[in-house]
């Protein structure tokens, strides 16, 4: 750049005349001295006119940023782009993080730049500086100042400023037309006072780092839709819209939309600027008219199945639904008419499945992590509950870093869901309740989680130990107070699969295997024999009684045969009383 400029200046410079005497002519000494003085003056002039500007230009344009270029008082001239970025960032480091003094109307306050997304884009600012080209003599006049590139999150800034508006502001009443059942009701606009949300970003960007205090004036806020606009909507749309039903005709059949559903779906609310733009709430319309389900085909999500002991993805199937979004303009137009019957043609659109095969395939569910089985006696009422919960659990997918809740996934155990009354522990006694026995599923799941090496978040063993479960490594659940929760702390998904027979329930987990897990027990200590208790209750369940004890267990994590770490579990079991249904025998007298 400097070389090109020097060449151009040389070409433009005048050529000094050659004062050569003609042959045979004698030049007097006085003339020779006068010509010498002219040559010296010409050389001096050339130096000022050509050489000095050339030297100055070469110095000015020698780097990426021309000399004389400033940003916010920082001289970036003569620096490379990288140097200018570092210089600007280092010089302004404290200024760009300091609280910004603002004035909202007459109220003074400060704003945290980070809280409102206020940043100085150093890279873009230096790009501006590089593009700036001051004239060769601009440095003699102090150079030029380049505006910084500043950005702010206008929404967050507006919210922060509104916190300081106080009594200076008076929110406007935004116009609307609403429905009281099927009766349209007008809400007329009323002007207010406040901050112009559309200007706060530009004001802050123009003032930050260049002014001591950035002023945000309080102005009149006039809703864009007027009283006349509201009256026009009332007469031209809202009133005729609910005067008669609407028939929506689809390729799969017709759907009758009553006036009550129209009132629920027609939205005549204004935006933040007070402008009413009529719209149709498609979700509200579908909810108000269940008959749409008769002409639509539900989508089927992709799922996992287990085939020959390996997880397989079953692809999704997209559905079809009435394209009410595309038909909204036509529906709004029809609602403006009072003629009957009112009818609009609506096409069908693809309704994508929520879960796709690609999404499941990317989860890394490819092999068995663990499996665990517990046994029970066939034919008991609790078996119904075990099967019901196992079926509800089958197919659950736990995403990476997700915490799974058994109560959250299965929900409350009720008769409506197929659960029956069966014995369970309640206040230390064995009582009948809906879902009694589902702790067998909880214990089986917990053991599968234990042996898969997944993180235990919440579990609690039973008050009494039952020999159908491994001691310590077992769990009970009560809805909603006592839950079984675990976290998938692996980088891949986890699939829960269940299976039942007449005498057993099995839980198998699939994912990507990380650990080999071993279970080690300590001895049982503090043994306590069960007491005998007589119960005179209508729903009494007799028991044989079991001893109480304390025991420790360790989960040992291994990879390649090498122990990585171990996790301690411990529990104290109360002795289960020997419950006898009836009256205690009376000891013989004497």
From TrEMBL:
This is VanW family protein. Keywords: Membrane, Transmembrane, Transmembrane helix. PANTHER family: EXPORTED PROTEIN, EXPORTED PROTEIN-RELATED. It comes from the Bacteria. The keyword DNA repair does not apply. InterPro entries: Glycopeptide_resist_protein (IPR052913), Vancomycin_resist_VanW (IPR007391). The chain crosses the membrane at residues 42-62. It comes from Dactylosporangium maewongense.
């Amino acid at each position: 750049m400097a070389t090109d400029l020097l060449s151009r200046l040389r070409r433009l410079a005048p050529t000094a005349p050659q004062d050569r005497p003609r042959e045979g002519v004698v030049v007097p000494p006085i003339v020779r001295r006068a010509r010498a003085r002219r040559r010296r003056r010409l050389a001096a002039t050339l130096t000022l006119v050509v050489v000095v500007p050339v030297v100055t230009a070469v110095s000015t344009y020698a780097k990426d940023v021309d000399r004389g270029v400033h940003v916010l008082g920082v001289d970036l001239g003569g620096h490379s782009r990288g140097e200018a970025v570092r210089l600007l960032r280092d010089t302004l480091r404290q200024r760009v993080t300091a609280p910004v003094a603002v004035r909202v109307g007459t109220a003074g306050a400060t704003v945290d730049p980070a809280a409102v997304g206020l940043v100085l884009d150093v890279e873009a600012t230096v790009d501006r500086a590089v593009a700036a080209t001051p004239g060769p003599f601009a440095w003699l006049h102090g150079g030029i100042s380049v505006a910084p590139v500043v950005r702010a999150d206008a929404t967050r800034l507006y919210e922060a400023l509104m916190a300081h508006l106080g009594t200076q502001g008076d929110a406007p009443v935004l116009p609307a037309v609403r429905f009281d059942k099927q009766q349209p009701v007008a809400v007329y606009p009323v002007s207010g006072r406040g901050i112009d949300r559309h200007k706060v970003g530009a004001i802050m960007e123009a003032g930050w780092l260049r002014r001591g205090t950035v002023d945000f004036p309080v102005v009149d806020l006039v809703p864009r839709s007027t009283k006349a606009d509201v009256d026009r909507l009332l007469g031209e749309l809202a009133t005729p819209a609910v005067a008669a039903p609407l028939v929506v005709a689809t390729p799969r059949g017709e759907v009758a939309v009553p006036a009550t559903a129209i009132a629920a779906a027609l939205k005549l609310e204004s935006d933040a600027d007070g402008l009413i733009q009529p719209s149709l709430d498609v979700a509200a319309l579908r909810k108000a008219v269940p008959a749409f389900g008769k002409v639509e085909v539900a989508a089927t999500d992709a799922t996992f199945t287990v085939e020959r002991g390996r997880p397989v993805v079953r692809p999704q199937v997209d559905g079809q639904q009435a394209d009410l979004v595309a038909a909204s303009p036509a529906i709004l137009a029809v609602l403006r008419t009072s003629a009957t019957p009112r009818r609009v043609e609506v096409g069908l659109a693809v309704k994508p499945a929520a879960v796709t095969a690609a999404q499941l395939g990317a989860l890394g569910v490819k092999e068995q992590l663990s499996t665990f089985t517990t046994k029970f006696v066939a034919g008991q009422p609790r078996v119904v509950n075990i099967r019901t919960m196992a079926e509800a659990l089958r197919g659950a997918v736990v995403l990476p870093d997700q915490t799974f809740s058994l109560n959250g996934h299965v929900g409350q155990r009720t008769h409506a869901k197929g659960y029956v009354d069966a014995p369970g522990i309640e206040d230390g006694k064995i009582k009948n309740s809906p879902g009694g026995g589902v702790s067998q599923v909880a214990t089986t799941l917990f053991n599968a989680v234990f042996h898969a090496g997944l993180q235990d978040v919440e579990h609690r063993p039973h008050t009494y130990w039952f020999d159908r479960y491994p001691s310590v490594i077992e769990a009970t659940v009560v809805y909603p107070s006592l839950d079984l929760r675990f976290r998938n702390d692996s980088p891949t998904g986890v699939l829960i699969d269940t299976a039942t027979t007449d005498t057993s329930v099995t839980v198998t987990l699939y994912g990507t295997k990380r650990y080999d897990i071993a279970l080690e027990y300590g001895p049982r200590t503090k043994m306590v024999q069960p007491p005998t208790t007589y119960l005179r209750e209508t729903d009494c369940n007799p028991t044989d009684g079991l001893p109480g004890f304390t025991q420790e267990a360790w989960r040992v994590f291994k990879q390649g045969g090498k122990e990585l770490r171990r996790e301690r579990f411990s529990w104290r079991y109360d002795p289960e009383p020997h419950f006898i249904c009836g009256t205690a025998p009376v000891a013989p007298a004497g």
